Amino acid sequence: ERVLSFVRQGEANKVFAVLNFSGEMRRVRFRDSLADGTYTEHFSGAATTIDGGAELELPPWGYRVFVR
To answer: Are 3 and 29 within 8 A, CB to CB?
Structure first.
């Protein structure tokens, strides 16, 4: 609720973004496999794996962007 996520993918690149449009901490879990993969978190440079059981915490009004 009040969290938007999307995947944008080309032949060689993929971007997965998750945005929290609320003033509360949100914990989200992804049910489909569209975002599955190994990414680099754009702003921190941390390696991150997203899979069917992945769960992310987003601070109020926060967002995370993953690139591959």
So the answer is: no
